[in-house]
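If you are new to this repository, start here. Below is one unmodified record pulled from the training split, so you can see the exact layout before writing a loader.
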Amino acid sequence: MYRSGGRWIRGDVLGEARHEVLLGVLGERVEVNRRDQRERLATLTGDRLDAFLDGRRLTVVRSVDGPRPSWGRISAELLERT
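And here is the target side for that same chain:
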């Protein structure tokens, strides 16, 4: 399991927010296959995370209407595939 830090940020500066963004920094750099990551993002379905990993930087976008994904889910869906 990767150690991390981060927090959810609402983007409602310009009006009512419909999405939140998790900006996180992992404790160590994680190498990922960029092509696989782009393909996964291009084929998002309703139950998959809108997440991106770049070195140590993790970004996850979610609708404010739904539950926040757990770290276990983020790790299982994104980090364990690297």
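Two things worth knowing about this chain: The first strand starts at residue 4 and ends at 10. The beta strands are 4-10, 19-30, 50-63.
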